[in-house]
Amino acid sequence: MGINEIYNYLRFLMLPVIVIIGIEFVLIGLYYFLYYRNRQSERKLRIDIKKLFIGALFIGYVDFVLELTIFGRGHSHFLQMNLHPFSSYIEAWNKYSLRDFQNCIFNIIMFIPMGILLPLISRKFKAFKWLFLVVVSSTLFIETYQTLSGAGIFELDDIINNTLGGIFGYQLYRLAASIVYNKRVRMKSLLGNLAIPLLMGLFFVGMNIVYFQQEFGNLAINSFTKWNMEDVHLTTSLQLSSAPTAAPVYKKIIHRDGVEALLQQKLGLSELKVVDDHGNREILLKDKSGTQYTLYLS
């Protein structure tokens, strides 16, 4: 899924989310102005309005994730599973495909809000173990539902990426809380809480460096999972030769100005006439037998 496709898809899915959040905010506003404000002096009726707003955002976020992963999908992958860790990264590396890497990154980004919003909703989720439990349970639920309903494939990489996203969101929350509490940015807190994006950034930089050091790049046909080939036996009726043969590796790129010279050299053509019309060239050529050819260059 390319960037434009993701943008259009998100724009389509965000409409019901915005409507739901808008309705929630309207209900909260009505409750506050018509009831809560008049009785807030009663201790038992004290409600944290900020948490209500954060809760409304969280409900909208959950609706968005469910639309993206469950309700907005077809049903064509019944009981399909991929339990090979990091296979999506290996496949993207073999293809050197920005599109495939985008899918990995998007799965991380999708769970970042959960790691930020949960600690703001409940103090319990300020403890990492409870937040981690909810994040892992949520992504397991999504993957299980997808594979049972046919809406998607149960992929171990999705669980890993979603969990990384939740942890990163939690780190962002801790970083913001540290800045608010200490009234300044502490370098130790900054580096510690930005460890995941820093490591991911170093990973992608290193990946590009390694790739461009390879003369021929990667082979997209390389397998991204390991298979047991002990019981596989190959036979052929073809007579295979062991003699070395030459094969082209590079495709020669011919610039516009070199086409005419190449044709004259390879085919023995001679130039008869050249007409230049605002950068478009029409060249009349003739071979040794007198046959004429017209070459158009634009």
UniProtKB/TrEMBL annotation:
Give the matching Pfam families: VanZ
Please indicate if the UniProt record lists Transmembrane as a keyword.
Answer: yes
- Alphabetically ordered keywords of this record: Membrane, Transmembrane, Transmembrane helix
Q: InterPro entries given for it?
A: Teicoplanin_resist-assoc, VanZ-like
Q: Does the keyword Phosphoprotein apply?
A: no
Report the residue ranges that make up the VanZ-like domain in this protein. Answer: 66-175
Span-the-membrane segments of this chain are 12-32, 52-71, 105-121, 128-147, 159-181, 190-212
| Name of this chain's protein | Glycopeptide antibiotics resistance protein
* Origin organism lineage: Bacteria, Bacillati, Bacillota, Bacilli, Bacillales
